[in-house]
Amino acid sequence: MATDTRGGDIESFGTVNKTVGAVFNYVLLAATLFGIVVLGALLVYVANDAIRPLTADPGWHLTFLLTLVLPTLGVGAYLYRRDTDALRFGAMTVGMTVVTLMFAGGVGMIFVDILSPFAFLAYAVALALPFALVLALQRRARRIPFLSRVGATTLAFYVSLFGLPGPVGAVAGLPTIVPGVPALVQSLPTIPLGWMSLTATLGLGVAALVGVYAARVRDPRAGLFAGAGALAAIGASGAIGPAVGVTPVPAVVLASIAGVPMVAYAAGTVAAQPRHRIGLLVPAVVIGGALVGEVAVGALGFAGPQSWVDWQFLTSAHSRNAIDAGLYPAIGGSILLMVTVALLSFPLGVGAAVYLEEYAPDNRLTRIIDVNISNLAGVPSVVYGLLGLGVFVTYLGRSTGTVLIGGATLALLILPIVIISSREAIRSVPNEMRQASYGMGATKWQTVRRVVLPRAFPGILTGTILALGRAIGETAPLIMIGAPSVLFSLPTGFTSKVSAMPLQVFAWSSLFASEDFYTKAVPAGVVVLVSVLLAMNSIAIVLRNKYQSEQ
C-alpha cells in the first residue's frame, strides 16, 4: 500500500497522485459553477425583460425592503443560529404554499372553464360504485377465483362509466339499454351548486387525506376530528369566498389544494416535533411582510413594476398586439396534455418496469428489450412527433392536433424515461425484504404489491414527475402532429384542438416576430413556463428528500 502523500504505485491502479485528483476536483467544480452562473444569468436576463423590476418607484423598493426583505433575512439568520431544522421547516412551508397556489390556479381553471363541478361529481360517483364492489370482492378473495374477480371488476367499471351496451354496442349500431352512472346523475332534475359538488368530491378527498395524515401523527380520533374540520373548512370557503371577492368554485379549489393541506402540514409537523414551531415565524414574516408592504405602497402611492406577467397576461388569449397578448388557452392546453400524458404513461411505464424487474426471465429477448428502452430514451423528440403522426393520425385516422393525440405522442416520448426511473426505484428495494416476504408465505404478487411497490413508490413518483417536466416543455412533437400554435379558446374535451405554452411562445417568436413580442410577450411566456417547470421539479425534490430521510 502506498504511503507517500504525493504519489506511489499500487498494483492494478497505476500511479496514485493526489495533486492530479485535486486538480480534477477543482476543474469539475469550476465547470459546475460556470454552468450555474451562465444559466442563472440567462434566467435573470429573461426575468428582467418580463417583470421589469427597475420600472417601480424607488419608494416601492424601499417599502418592501423594510417590510419583507430585512425582516425575512433577520428571522432566517436567527433561526439559522438557533435551530436549522426549524428554519428548514419554515422555508418548506413558504415554498409549498407558493407551489400549491400555482397548482390551485391550474385546477381552478379546469373547474371554471373546462369541466363543470357537477360533471366531475357524476364521474366520481361512477367510479366510487365499482370501487366499492372491488373492496367487497377483495374481502372474499379466497372464495372467488382471481380471473372471476378481474372480470367482475372490469365489467363493473365499464357498466358504471358507459352503461350497456356502451361504446362497444355503439360501434355495432346497438341502442343504449342501460345508461351509465354519469348520464343518470347529470339527468337529475335538481342539481347541487358547483361549489357544493366540488366540496363533495375534491373537498371530501382532501379531507380524507388530512384525516389519514393526522391519524398517523397522533391517533385515529385526532384523524377523525382533523378530517371533519378540513371538510368543514373547505365547505365554508365556498360560502365565505364571495364576501372577500372570490367566487365559490375557485374558493373551494384554493381551500382544497392550498389552504387546508398547508395548515394540516404545519399543524402535523408542530404536533410531531414541537420544537419546530418557531419555524412558523418564516411564513408569518413573509406573508405578513408582503401584506403590510402592499398596503403601505398603496397608501403612499408608490407604483410597482410594470410587469408583463400580470393578471391580464395570465387570463387573456392571444392577440396580434403584444401588449394585449395572453397565455390563458395555452396554459389550459398544457394542463390537459399533462393529465393525458400522466394517465397514459404512468400505468404503462410502471407496469412495464414491474414486469421487467420482477417477472421477466433473464434471456436474450429481455436483454434486447433493455437495450432498446435505453436507446429510446435518447431519441430526439421530433422523431416521436413523426411516430405520433404516422400511428395516430395516418394509420388510425384520428384528427390532428387534439388533446388525446398530443397527450399520446408525449406519453410515448417520456415512456422510456418512466420505465427506466421506475426500474431503478424497484431495483433499489433490498432483496432481503423480498426474501422475508417469501419466508412468511407470501406469493410473488403479494410481495410485489405489499412490499416492493410501497417501498419503491416515492422513487417512481419522482421519476414520473421529472419526466412530465420534460413533456410540458416539448414543442417539436406537437408541431409534427398538427397542433395549432395559436388558439383563442380553451379545449373542452380530449377530442378538442389544443395548443400549449411552448407552442404559443414559439408562435410569438416566429409567426408574430417583432420587437414588441420579443421584449414583452416572449419573456413573459418563458417566465411562466419556467415557473411551472420549477414547481413540478420542486415536488420531485421534496419527495426524494422525504424518501431519503425515511431510509
Descriptive report:
The structure is a single chain. A two-stranded antiparallel sheet has the order 1-2. It contains 21 helices and two strands. The N terminus is likely disordered. The protein is globular, with a radius of gyration of 27 Å. A hairpin with a 3-residue loop joins strand 1 and strand 2. Helix 1 crosses helix 21, helix 3 runs antiparallel to helix 10 and helix 8 packs antiparallel against helix 9. With 551 residues, it is mostly helical.
Summary, kept brief:
Helices cover 75% and strands 1% of the residues.
| Number of discrete helical segments | 21
Shape: globular
Order of helices and strands: EEHHHHHHHHHHHHHHHHHHHHH
| Helix/strand structural class | mainly alpha
Low-confidence stretches: 1-8
- Biggest sheet layout: 2 strands, antiparallel
The termini sit apart by 35 Å
Mean pLDDT: 86
Which strand order spans the largest sheet, edge to edge or round the barrel?
1-2
Tell me how many strands there are.
2
Helix content: over 70%
Rg (C-alpha, Å): 27 Å
Strand content: under 5%
